[in-house]
Amino acid sequence: MLSESAIERRILASEAKTIIVRGGPGTGKTTLLTRRVISLIDGKEIPPSSVLLLCVSPASAKALGDILRQNHREIRIE
Known about the structure:
78 residues, mainly alpha, 3 helices
């Protein structure tokens, strides 16, 4: 696993309700968002039903959903 950058650490630790992550293809946006959501759900800070993630493409939405469901089968992806 690659080491976290300062920006990644700030995003993962942020208490903000809204976070926008921008980056080019292959820069780790989907992985970072997935880690953030899983940490919030696992920490019982939020229920899975209160999460809204918007993806730029159906492919990124599928990748995100697949990773989230591996960790939390109760998550519903629409």
